């Protein structure tokens, strides 16, 4: 034993093996040491078997084997056994035979030294074992000193009893294993049945999903076909209506011309009413035709460097006649961004539609157009103090022909096409439009366009 072991372990007993019958004695003694230290029955048998097997091998190599039993109370409490043989080259003879023995204990070492071959082995005590205090180790030493070993026949009887107990335990474990296998097999059958049921349900669900996708594809084709038919209808009807409506306007102009036959006041009023209605109808037809072109994807932007100052000045001049109410301030501020790469006609149409709508629905306050740079974009803002739009209708106002319930324009008529058309044009220009509005406060429409097109 080295000095570290001496400080850590406490000697319980020593004995010497001289003849083969001493192997039975050391086996009994090892089992008694394990019992006294607090090991369970099976661990007692394991340690005793390991000691007797090592003793048998060492006695076969040479006589006078010294056996010492120690108790370790530091960190992990354990019983340690040290067996020393005077044969100095015994390690190479012992190691091949002790592989199976090493499985019975927690640690095993075989060393050769000047005094002979030493085998050290240890077995830990179970967690519930009583602590190895100094008084208890003294009690264990006194008990071992008074221990009287039995005869080989007694040890054989003990081994037979241990073997019977081990066989009973093995049989019980085998029965438990058979029961667990039966339960596992039953569980597997249940799992397989559930798996087949889930597989069938999943297959049925997949068929339903496939059928649903097929129906959705069919509905998509139908919707696309209907949309294309609607676009063609709008384009054709609008085109066919423009000529007669224009003719009606022209005829009305001729009837009220001073060079023609004079009309009485009632006739003049009726002709003027015809001209006004025809003008409104022509505006609606033009809106329908423009919307049809946008939906059909036939509008391609003509990119150019747009002078925003000139555009804002033109909008200020052309829309000034609509701002006839003194209660409304019509403000077109100088743009903070002088130039923008865009389509001048489309951008002007978008801003004109937004300003026209704002002027139609603003009784008092102001209508304001501004433009400023935000990061790499330009934001055009049309803000008014009109009636406002409820939050739940912010998206619906961009539907074709939709008008806010109860909202009546102060001048002219509304078709419900200006905002949808403006939004489509903004999309063609690579931008986005958003609205912020609250009833009784007003509305703000923001058009965000990239400063430079890719």
From TrEMBL:
Superkingdom, according to UniProt?
A: Bacteria
Q: What class of enzyme is it?
A: transferase
Question: What's its EC?
Answer: 2.7.13.3
> What's the source species for this entry?
Mangrovihabitans endophyticus
Q: Which SMART domains match?
A: HATPase_c (SM00387), HisKA (SM00388)
Alphabetically ordered keywords of this record: Coiled coil, Kinase, Phosphoprotein, Transferase, Two-component regulatory system
Kindly list the places in or outside the cell where this protein is found, as annotated in its UniProt entry. Answer: Cell membrane
The record's Pfam families line, in alphabetical order, gives:
HATPase_c (PF02518), HisKA (PF00512)
Q: Where is the Histidine kinase domain?
A: 236-453
Q: Please list the coiled coil stretches.
A: 153-201
| Gene3D superfamilies for this protein | 1.10.287.130, Histidine kinase-like ATPase, C-terminal domain
* GO cellular component annotations of the record: plasma membrane
Which reaction is this enzyme known to catalyze? ATP + protein L-histidine = ADP + protein N-phospho-L-histidine
From the Swiss-Prot or TrEMBL record, give the protein name. histidine kinase
Q: Which SUPFAM superfamilies match?
A: ATPase domain of HSP90 chaperone/DNA topoisomerase II/histidine kinase, Homodimeric domain of signal transducing histidine kinase
One GO molecular-function annotation for this sequence?
Answer: phosphorelay sensor kinase activity
């Amino acid at each position: 034993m080295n000095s570290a072991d001496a400080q850590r372990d406490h000697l319980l007993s020593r004995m010497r093996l001289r003849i083969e019958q001493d192997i039975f004695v050391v086996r009994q003694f090892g089992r008694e040491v394990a019992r006294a230290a607090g090991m369970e029955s099976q661990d007692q048998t394991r340690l005793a078997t390991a000691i007797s097997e090592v003793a048998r091998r060492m006695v076969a190599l040479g006589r006078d084997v010294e056996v010492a039993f120690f108790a370790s109370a530091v960190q992990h409490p354990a019983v340690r056994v040290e067996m020393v043989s005077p044969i100095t080259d015994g390690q190479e003879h012992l190691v091949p035979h002790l592989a199976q023995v090493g499985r019975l204990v927690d640690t095993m070492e075989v060393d050769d030294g000047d005094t002979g071959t030493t085998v050290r082995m240890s077995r830990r005590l179970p967690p519930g074992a009583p602590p190895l205090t100094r008084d208890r180790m003294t009690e264990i030493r006194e008990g071992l000193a008074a221990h009287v070993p039995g005869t080989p026949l007694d040890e054989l009887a003990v081994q037979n009893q241990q073997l019977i107990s081990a066989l009973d335990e093995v049989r019980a474990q085998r029965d438990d294993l058979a029961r667990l296998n039966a339960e596992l097999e039953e569980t597997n059958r249940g799992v397989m049945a559930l798996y087949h049921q889930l597989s069938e349900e999943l297959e049925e669900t997949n068929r339903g999903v496939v059928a649903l996708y097929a129906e959705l594809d069919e509905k998509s084709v139908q919707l696309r076909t209907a949309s294309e038919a609607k676009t063609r209808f709008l384009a054709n009807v609008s085109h066919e209506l423009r000529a007669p409506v224009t003719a009606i306007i022209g005829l009305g102009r001729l009837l009220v011309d001073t060079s023609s036959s004079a009309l009485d006041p009632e006739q003049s009023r009726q002709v003027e009413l015809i001209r006004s209605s025809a003008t409104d109808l022509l505006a609606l037809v033009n809106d329908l035709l423009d919307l049809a072109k946008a939906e059909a994807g036939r509008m391609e932007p003509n990119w150019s460097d747009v002078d925003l100052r000139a555009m804002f000045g033109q909008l200020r001049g052309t829309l000034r006649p609509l701002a006839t109410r003194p209660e409304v301030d019509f403000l077109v501020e100088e743009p903070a961004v002088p130039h923008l790469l865009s389509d001048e006609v489309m951008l002007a149409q978008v801003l004109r539609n937004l300003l026209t709508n704002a002027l139609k629905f603003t009784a008092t306050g102001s209508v304001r157009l501004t433009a400023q740079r935000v990061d790499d974009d330009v934001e055009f803002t049309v803000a008014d103090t009109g009636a406002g739009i409820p939050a739940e209708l912010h998206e619906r106002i961009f539907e074709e022909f939709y008008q806010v319930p109860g909202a009546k324009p102060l001048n002219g008529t509304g078709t419900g096409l200006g905002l949808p058309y403006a939004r489509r044009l903004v999309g063609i220009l690579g931008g986005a439009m958003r609205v912020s509005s609250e009833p009784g406060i007003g509305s703000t429409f923001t058009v965000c366009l990239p400063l430079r097109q890719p």
